[in-house]
Amino acid sequence: MGKINADAMSIKVKLFGDLKSKIDHENTKTGPPAIITIENTGIERIEDVLEKLSIEQSEVSHIFVNHKYSGYKKTVRSGDTVAFFPVNMSLLYKWYYPKEND
Amino acid sequence: MPRRILRVNMSNLEAKFEDLPEEYTVLGGRGLTSTIIAKEVPPDCHPLGPSNKLVFAPGLVTGTRAPSCGRISVGGKSPLTGGIKEANAGTNFAHALAKLRIAAIIVEGQPEGDDYYLLKINKDGSEFINANKWVGKGLYGAYKEILKEFGDQNKISGVGITAEIGGTMSGVSFSDPEGMPSRYAGRGGLGAVMAKRGLKFILADDTDAPGVEIANQDVFSAGVKKLVNALATHDVTKPGGALSSFGTAVLVNIINEAGGLPQRNFSAGSDDRSANVSGESKAEMISNRGGVRPHACNTGCVIRCSEVWTKPKAKDPVGVLEYESVWSLGPNCGIYNLDDVGELNRACNDLGLDTIEAGNTLAVAMEGGLANWGDGKGALKLLEEIRKKSALGRIIANGTEFTGRALGVWRVPTVKGQALPAYDPRPIKGIGVTYATTPMGADHTAGYAIATEIMGVGGQADPADTNKAELSRNLQLATAAVDASGYCLFIAFAVLDIPEGLEGVVESINGVYGTNLTVADVAPIGQSIIDTELNFNKAAGFTKADDRLPEFLRTEKVAPTNEVFNVPDEEIDKVWGK
């Protein structure tokens, strides 16, 4: 077995708009996104990431995993980048996007 | 007094009111501009020549107290695409025309000589005034001088230097509530159509105007109430929602995450630096420097997605920096600095041109070696060549495709000669079908989101369905109907999720006109408008071969999704296939 890259054991999470306050209560909803790295222990799917960050599914609109429009059941792995947008940012042309939910 | 047409003959400087023909009674906005253009303009005419006409038409409910209804459509044969064109804007100019009971202004003819004119319209009639003193001047200064000379009760429409040189990226500008030239019916080069008629400005003064006649106040009020409730409760459109908090540029981060925010002339679909020019970053900067956010682009808008962007310490206000403008003048040119974007947007407004076409043109110019990616100052210099009316400026003023040819660039993102908006059609294939098939040339608003299932025009829309033709068609029909109503397209977010909101839209129109339309009539109204436009384009020489995306989008994979645009031609042709 080769050497395991420490970075590959984690998941990068980007929180936009109102969701920034979930990790930093001083943070305002304006400005750039909040970007954090979480350990992937116990995380299999998007719904697990949300639980770890204490974010309700009802608070989230668009979800992207590595730039793919995704649902709560989408599998996430070490090294993935996940982006969450709050409900009030649901501005996509939603029919144009197939949602991945493997 | 019923709604009227004001026919403006620039050949003999005569403006006369005409009765609105019976068949136009329940037409407004895009429905009216496209109908009049199809009836009165030969499809094979040269867009800059004497046979073309320019039509202004406020929407069906514009001028009333219905929410977010201050849209005006401008129509003509497009110098950019060679086809029919409707471009629309939100502005108090629209309300003023409607309150004066003007259903449409038809501008036709060409005066002899090189003089330009200003047309003043008020409750007593109209008057021509020589406008030569504003030729060659930027629109920010011109609008300021005009309001000082004629009074700030006037709402202005005008064209700038780009239109004076016949530039196909020239737009028709309208005053915002601050009197700045920041509201644009930008697309398709209609500014040049106006300038070639010798018309530089129109002033609309609705002081003591009769206002819009409401046939049935009860029906109208009930409809308005339903729509207001929908807009006030939906997460996107309510106060504190995405649009009022961040403006349309809230889409920057979303589309960047979707891998569909074109970077450096569509050579990538995402770049982390895009967050620097996002709606969230812009809102923070506006707050810090004393600009205005949120802001209504016209009286009665409850969504308030607009803003006033300024330099630090609230200096040199620009007006709104829309999502499309921020993208085209920003990431699409490798520029990730909002101050650079703001200066470029100010130059576009001042020169009287379409920001989407401008940003694409600059990106193609960068690819052609005229400036480096990310060079905001270099990009500004290129736009300023238009002000000088130099040979290079005249190339730039003619848009993306023309500039690409002049510079030998083959990666030119246009359909029917019009540059693509801010959604890469490779990862977002449905919108690519709309770019390909709308009669307008590549246009994002042509297929904006209204639920097909709510409209009942095509059953359930499954996002995974590969049947993109039906999806695109239904969205285009719904959009054409909204463009005729005078309502802002952004009401779609609310009426999409809240069915009573859509009922309110239809009932408000019934209230004004005494009609008995239902939600089921929306799609046929849209179909009728689009059929008129398609027939015009066919007579102008368009074929299926014009309904295609450029080769590089079909062959070049775009990171990070590594997609190409691979919707088959047969699927594209199904959109308008019988």
Q: Could you please describe the fold and organization of this structure?
A:
- The complex is a heterodimer of chains A (102) and B (578).
- Chain A is mainly beta and 102 residues long.
- Chain A has one domain (6-96): Roll (Ubiquitin-like (UB roll)).
- Chain A has one helix and five strands.
- A five-stranded mixed β-sheet of chain A has the order 2-1-5-3-4, with no helix packed on it.
- In chain A, strand 3 and strand 4 (68-69) form a beta hairpin.
- The longest helix of chain A is centred in the middle third of the chain and has 7 residues, at 46-52.
- Chain A is globular and about 35 Å long.
- With 578 residues, chain B is α+β, with helices and mostly antiparallel strands.
- Chain B folds into three domains: 4-205, Aldehyde Ferredoxin Oxidoreductase,  A, domain 1 (4-Layer Sandwich), CATH 3.60.9; 244-412, Aldehyde Ferredoxin Oxidoreductase Protein, subunit A, domain 2 (Orthogonal Bundle); 429-489 and 514-573, Orthogonal Bundle (Aldehyde Ferredoxin Oxidoreductase Protein, subunit A, domain 3).
- Chain B is built from 23 helices and 17 strands.
- In chain B, the strands form four sheets. Chain B has a six-stranded mixed β-sheet, sandwiched between helices. In chain B, strands 8-7-12-9-10-11 form a six-stranded mixed β-sheet.
- In chain B, helix 6 crosses helix 19.
- Chain B is globular.
- Chain A binds chain B through residues 14, 16-17, 28-33, 61-62, 64, 66-69, 83, 85, 87-99, and chain B through 235-236, 238, 240-243, 245-246, 250-251, 253-254, 257-259, 269-270, 275-276, 278, 280-281, 283-284, 287, 423, 427-431, 447-449, 452, 461, 463-464, 471, 475, 493, 560-561.
Could you give a short description of this structure?
With 102 residues, chain A is mostly beta strands. Chain A contains one helix and five strands, in the order ββαβββ. Chain B has 578 residues and is α+β, with helices and mostly antiparallel strands.
